[in-house]
Amino acid sequence: MSSSAAPSSLARRAGAARSVAVRYGRRGLALARRTPFPRPTVRGWTLLAVGIGLVGGGLVGSTSVAVSAGLLLLVLLVLGTVMAFVVAAPLRGSRSAARAIVQVGEVYRERVTLRGTGLQFGPRSTLLVREQLDDVFASVSDAETYATVGPRTPPAVLDVEALAMHRGRGLVGPVTIRVEDPFGLLRIDRPVVRAEEVVVVPASTPLTAIDTGALAGAVSADEGRVGQGGSADDSELRPYRPGDPIRRVHWGQSARRGELHVRQTTQAQPPEAVIALDVRRESYQALGRDDLAELSDLGGDAAFEHAVVVAASVARALAARTSRVVLVSDDPDGVTRHAGDAGGLTDVLVGLADVQVRSDARDVTEVLPDVRGRDVHGMTAVVTGRCTAEQAAELVSATIGSSRGILATIVPPEPVVRGILDRGGWRTLVVPVAGASAPGSIR
After folding, report:
1. What is the pLDDT of residue 225?
2. How far apart are CA 232 and CA 235, in angstroms?
3. Cβ distance 200 to 136 under 8 Å?
4. Tens digit of each residue's pLDDT (9 = 90 or more) over 231-259
């Protein structure tokens, strides 16, 4: 029994050792695969050339001293390669950020943590940690630092702060490390944290008390319309359902109809708001130097960017007064793009971060019918650069039977345009860019 137990114990130990060796071998192979091969520095290339020259010259001249010296230099280069791999391969990094959505003018903050090998032995090395930032950000703090990694050393930390300069989707990262061997012969540049997307949403322009009052007035007008249509008895009553408060029972109508009916509460339901952004380039190229000196760019890009800010400001103001805010615009594929269908303001702002001005975009009046098809009720706010009389008439006719609308423009409309909108029940809101020579107005 003892002779048979000994081989069995040895077999189990051998199997366990083989399992551990295979596991660590696979882990080491995976680390080696994701670690770039070291690149020689200028000193490394010089050492390599001298070593090869000494070996070659020693073999030709039968000089053993030269061959030995050359081999020693080459061994030194191989040793540096191994040491660089030992330091760079086990490095692990992580990124923690407070949020992945920031506003133009806000500071994006993150912390990069770098950990070395978990073994109790190994070389200690100082390496360069660098975070890459996209063009939508301007670095506030230094995005690179030198960190020491190795056994029994705390994790290296890099705090990055960047100012969001432009709206859009920007990339943060990847985080790369640069490892050099102790002799300065080789260098490894390896990404340790992959790049992540950060959405920069547009900022808001200040709305005066008059502007805010106009928005509140339009919403109040819409709120009074919700639930109307037909007589009060027909529109405000529905059959009783278990759980309805007994105080809501309309006893007179219940007696007439032979069953219990309760009063509706639809009039207390907040309305929904649709913000239609005009993305046609011609709407913003029409702004000349006399109208708005700061936005007299030939392509209309600066004027459009201010219109996006106006749309974001209106969206933030309406989100506090309505149950849902939806952003609609024309997509490059010719369909109407909806953002914020779930009712979240964040989705609307993210949609505004993605919109682009185009020369082939459709008119807003062609987009609004698609909105009505999605059963979006409430008010309609149209944001554009300038509105002509023909466009005003089309807007009024496109929203007949719906709620009161708001036209938000960068420059004041012509008197005839304002008259058409006033007769159609629309309010006009002008939000000029700060410092513009053309005065804004509101009605």
Report:
1. 41
2. 5
3. yes
4. 334 446 778 776 566 777 888 888 888 88
Terminal-to-terminal C-alpha distance of the chain: 103
In sequence order, the 6+-apart residues with CB closer than 8 A to the CB of 24 are none
Instruction: Give tens-digit pLDDT for 167-188.
Output: 999 889 899 888 888 888 888 8
- The whole-angstrom separation of Cα 329 and Cα 305 is 15
Which residue in the block uniquely carries the two structure tokens 């790049």? 195
pLDDT, tens digit, 9 for 90 and up, residues 361-393: 888 888 877 764 444 456 788 898 888 888 888
Cα atoms in the 13 Å half-sphere on the side-chain side of 236: 14
Cβ atoms of 287 and 296 closer than 8 Å:
yes
Look up residue 172 and give its two tokens: 């943060």
d(C-alpha 110, C-alpha 364), whole Å: 40
């390599």: which residue's tokens? Answer: 48
The 3-state DSSP class for residue 358 equals strand
Dihedral angle sign, alpha carbons of residues 380, 382, 388, 391:
negative
What is the Cβ-side half-sphere exposure of residue 112, based on CA atoms within 13 angstroms? 31
Instruction: Order across the sheet with 137-139: list the strands.
Output: 92-97, 107-115, 156-164, 137-139
Torsion of CA 30, 34, 38, 39, to 10 degrees: 160
d(CA 236, CA 228): 9
pLDDT per residue over 10-67, tens digit each?
A: 766 666 667 766 665 665 565 556 567 788 889 889 988 998 988 888 888 888 888 8
The verdict on pTM exceeding 0.85 is no
Task: Name the DSSP letter for residue 154.
Answer: P
